[in-house]
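testing teh design pipeline on a random one, pls ignore if ur not involved
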């Protein structure tokens, strides 16, 4: 192979590799799945929280938090198509959130009732989500999330988790986390309607982990490949 052909083939391989990196980084952002009708031999879990309008299973066992909301696991998984969820507290394993919605649980790790303040009036919160963590030795092994019906301030929950091995016994919930999305945020990080501070958050839970950011050099590499190929084509045209 000539030097010119070798150079051309190397550039093509470089561009293909860069494109693959871009696809891989983008696909890693959304990895939740809609709750299936059945999980093994266990009953459906999509309606275990009412009133709700959706159910999704996350990509990990735990909805870990961190200093930067962009790296909350629920945002990495882009639950229900959103990556701007704000932590609003935790029940059963009690922990305050950055945003206080008055989350209250009456019951235990198998079933009970939930309630929140009237967070919908005045209009400041557009979405409310509950995330249930079970354990790696439970079925399903990953956390389960429910999108609460707009306007709801109370309802019922039943554990979505079962013991493994086909026995189908109800398994304990480790914790229930609440997340919200804000409808109107001004430039200071404060909700203009409710004056809720949505600034930084420091996670204090023992099982939380910071999720490192993913560098994206592939975009620059792909752009450089394009410029190099254009310059090469122009030089060949001028030399003819």
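output:
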């Amino acid at each position: 192979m000539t030097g010119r052909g070798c150079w051309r083939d190397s550039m093509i391989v470089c561009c293909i590799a860069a494109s693959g990196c871009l696809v891989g980084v983008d696909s890693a952002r959304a990895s939740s799945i809609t709750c299936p009708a059945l999980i093994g031999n266990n009953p459906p879990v999509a309606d275990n929280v009412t009133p709700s309008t959706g159910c999704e299973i996350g990509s990990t066992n735990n909805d870990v938090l961190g200093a930067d909301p962009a790296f909350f696991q629920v945002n990495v998984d882009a639950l229900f198509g959103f990556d701007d969820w704000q932590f609003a507290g935790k029940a059963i394993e009690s922990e305050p959130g950055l945003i206080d919605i008055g989350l209250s649980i009456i019951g235990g790790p198998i079933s009970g009732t939930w309630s929140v303040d009237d967070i919908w009036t005045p209009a400041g919160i557009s979405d409310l989500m509950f995330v249930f963590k079970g354990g790696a030795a439970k079925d399903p092994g990953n956390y389960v999330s429910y999108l609460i019906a707009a306007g709801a301030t109370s309802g019922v929950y039943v554990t979505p988790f079962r013991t493994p091995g086909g026995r189908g016994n109800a398994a304990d919930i480790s914790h229930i986390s609440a997340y919200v999305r804000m409808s109107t945020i001004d430039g200071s990080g404060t909700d203009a309607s409710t004056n809720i501070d949505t600034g930084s958050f420091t996670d204090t839970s023992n099982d939380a982990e910071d999720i490192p950011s993913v560098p994206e050099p592939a975009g620059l590499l792909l752009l450089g490949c394009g410029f190099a190929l254009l310059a090469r084509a122009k030089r060949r045209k001028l030399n003819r």
